[in-house]
Amino acid sequence: MEKSRIHFLLLCFSFCFGVVFPGLAQKGKAQPVDLKWLHNQTIHGATGVSWGVPWPKGTVKKGQQFYLTNAAGKVLPLQAWSMAYWPDGSLKWTGFATVAGPENNGLKLNLGKAQAPREQEKLQLKETGKSIRIHTGNLQCVVPKNGSFLLDSLVTEGRMVGSRGRLECVLQNGPDREAHESPTKDRYLSKVEKVTVEQTGPVRAVVRVEGKLQAEKGQRTWLPFSTRLYFYAGSNAVRIVNTLIYDGNDQQDFIKGLAVVFSVPMREQMHNRHVRFSGEGPGIWAEPVKPLVGRRPVNYQGKNVFADQVAGKRIANQEEFAAPEQKLIQDFPIWNDYKLMQNNADGFNIQKRTNTKSTWLDAIAGKRATGLAFVGDVQGGLAIGLKDFWQSYPAALEVRYAAKSMAELKVWLWSPYAEAMDMRHYDTLAHGLEATYEDVQEGFSTPYGIARTSELTLFASANVPSNEELSSLANISSQTPLLVTTPEYLHSVNTFGVWSLPDRSTSGKRWIEEQLDKAITFYQKEIDQRNWYGFWNYGDVMHAYDPVRHTWRYDIGGFAWANTELAPDMWLWYSFLRTGRADIFKMAEAMTRHTSEVDVYHIGRMAGLGSRHNVRHWGDGSKEVRESQAPYRRFYYYLTTDERTGDMMREVAQTADKALVEVDPLRLILPKSQYPTHSRIGPDWLALVGNWMTEWERTGDKRWRDKIMAGVNSFAKMPYGFFSGNQGAFGYDPATQKMHMLSNDAIGSAHLTVLMGGPEVAFELTDLLQDKTWNRLWLQYSELYGASEETIEKALGKRATLGSPGPHFARLPAYASKMKQNPELAKRAWAEFLHPRTAEQFDPKLINGVQAVKPLEEVPGVSTNNIAQWCLNAIQLLELVGDQIPAQNELWNSADKPKK
Predict the structure, then answer these.
(1) What separation in angstroms does the CA of 519 have from each of 368, 496, 868, 869?
(2) Helix, strand or coil for residue 776?
(3) Closest CA to 240 of 455, 494, 537
(4) Type and span of the H or E element at 826
(5) Pairing with 156, which of 23, 70, 670, 770 sits 20 to 30 Å away (CA)?
(6) pLDDT band, residue 119 (cuts 50/70/90)
């Protein structure tokens, strides 16, 4: 009887795989893939772009060649590399790079051999013992292998327009104090320790520069950095992705300023030198170093030259003017220094001065600057833009020494014109779980080892770009151009497990889609009206709301920043995959950048672990794998090919399980056992599994699969499968990856197993493993979690309560229904999901007058936990059992809206 039952289940699995996982049903040759620009951007000139494309399993072999065409049939330059593999060895994801211009729409990716680019069109890279030299065709530059400079000697059209690219830090000894006190400050400069050519080809080269910042006066080094430089054939731009790791003493080391700096040669007379800042939207602030305007106009051959001068056109040298005009020019002031300061998300101002002995003069102010600066003369110069400039305040742009032979162009990642960076915890006293939902432990509320990545783009120019060109460059630097394919294609390939395309074909589905749209809109508004911006905060959202104070609980322990709690990262990414919306991508991108860097430790004893939600992102004592896990980052990595994200996914795959020994996730709950550490099935073990799954597909190395199966086989030997533990807790040995029961007859479950990305990993793993033991265990877990005690007793031979039914867990019976073709389980899934309490959770109300500091929209009972999980379940139920959604339900009336 048991053999027959297993045989029946296996038949169900083989039948359902092609339905639940459509990628399994697609065999044969891959078809051409349509591509589009994600962001609506105006592009001037050749622009380098990198992106990823997935393939159905078994359709594209390793070594396959590709070519790219535009709407006119023109073949564009293309470089390709493998990013991930299916278990059968076929390509799963391929990374691509091209150089495209404004005319390149209607792009199509084709399988087949393209004509090789001509030699003069290829990017050239030459490595010696001292440096790496890159020639894109429009730009020549040098990456030194030692010293202080990350990038040197930028030459375009035969003229050097930039040099000595470096990092600079102003370190303050202690916090800001009373007005009459001034802490000492020291200057630190980058010190290169290692340079690696990570990729080189006809279209794109990637060079990684690693090192630390060293005291200008002294030997101390700190702030490890990893800076990637991206070069594209035919482009005069260099993309810079810079990561800094904080390894200081938070009580003593206060960063007063943090900058990327370039030197720019100034050859022309003062009136042919120019400074530019991008302002609000497309706006550009443009001035000459020596404006030729005053009491009366300056004329050359009978024409007022000021308009041409401001436009950046060459003006005759001073000696070529008539004598009276020369006298005027001689007498005009020269402006040496300029700065644009964005000290908060809603205000910037521009100042300039003539010299260090004179005052700064206010030029103009605005709200949100797009973050690009240019300095140069009519023979050329440099522009540099910082992505998310105003969102990551306090930031600044600065030009120094514009009147000297060598100007300085600075992008302040942390503005020296703001308060010093304070990394301390928010209190010196510990507050307990009962009071503030906070788990403070001595020595754990530390920023030591967290990181911050900034993205910049450098543009070399052989002249002074027009305002229109600079506005386009600001747009490109503030939002990296990206090519994407359609949601329909991504869904058909099935690389990210279970998710649905939007469907409004019935009243019930239409209502759910409306709620999903409202949820995104609500958080977009909340990010802005609550000012969830700043260098360390941008990308995260808050955890829980306080309707009495009309604010989120920003100051209440574990209720403040969410830090990936209940997988908002996945909610945003699945929302993007199914819609292709650029605004959702922007939210998900910012969250991924933040949660993968700031919420995770990259060096030190807790490397590989992340921090639980808290007032300060790193403040909680709970340090776990659930916050650092790779499954939250895979979406961004594969869609954009971002190498920094790839670094972090590899880090956690290699270190996270060992970090569990250093920091046992259950150290305050369970006594130390005979095993090296503890692990719950989720969020610990399933997070590790997601790390290994990602590394397995990236490398094709089956040893990562073996790590997964070591745990699967451990559970298979236990009497109750994944329920064989007291509250889901087990002993764990990182040396063998085996899980162990802590008591012989324990049975239990933990709700966190389902809420931190566990099901999303498990759904995808079913397709990848193709293993009957895993299938049996996960199907059993999905069917029995939240089931009645009678059902559990019938299945396991022991009466128990295993989880509580509800909207957060509805995707489990939905999965079981799909796999077993059981309509009763589908009915149960919808009954759990369509709970009256969720009916109006996204409908905001206006609060104004004396009740709030400004007019606000609020949803009194809002919780990011609830919204993220509700949306994830909605997206997955529509895919798994969408065809069985109740035709009539008490939640809908004739107007297709929730009942009051």
Answers:
(1) 25, 22, 9, 11
(2) helix
(3) 455
(4) helix 823-833
(5) 70
(6) confident
Sign of CA dihedral 19, 21, 22, 24: negative
Structure tokens at 577: 């995959």
pLDDT attached to residue 888:
59
Beta bridge partners of 140: 135, 155
In DSSP notation, 168-180 reads: EEEEEES----TT
CA atoms 632, 637, 643, 644: torsion sign: negative
Euclidean distance between CA atoms 517 and 512, whole angstroms = 9
Helix (H, G, I), strand (E, B) or coil at 441: coil
Please report the DSSP string for 507-535 in residue order.
Answer: HHHHHHHHHHHHHHHHHHHHHHHTT--ST
Residue 444: which of 601, 244, 554, 595 has the closest Cα? 601
In a 3-state reduction of DSSP, which class is residue 315?
A: coil
Report the predicted TM-score, pTM, of the whole model to 2 decimal places. Answer: 0.95
Tokens of residue 770, six digits = 């193709």
Distance of CA 92 to the CA centre of its chain: 22
Residues counted in the chain: 900
- How confident is residue 117, by pLDDT bands cut at 50, 70 and 90? confident
608: Cα separation from own chain's centroid: 17
Residue 26 pLDDT more than 90? no
> What element of type H or E holds 738?
strand 738-740
Residues 66, 112 contacting (CB under 8 angstroms): yes
Q: How far is 796 from 260, CA to CA, in rounded Å?
A: 62
What are the pLDDT digits (tens) for 155-192?
Answer: 999 999 999 999 999 999 999 887 667 899 999 999 99
Per-residue DSSP letter, 465? -
Return the bridge partners of 229, or none: 207, 240
Q: Rounded distance, CA 674 to CA 691, Å?
A: 26
Q: Is 350 helix (H, G, I), strand (E, B) or coil?
A: strand
Confidence (pLDDT) at 10: 41
User: What count of other Cβ atoms lies within 10 Å of the Cβ of residue 260?
Assistant: 24
Query: Number of C-alpha atoms within 13 angstroms, CB side, residue 107?
Result: 28
Owner of token pair 């390509």: 91
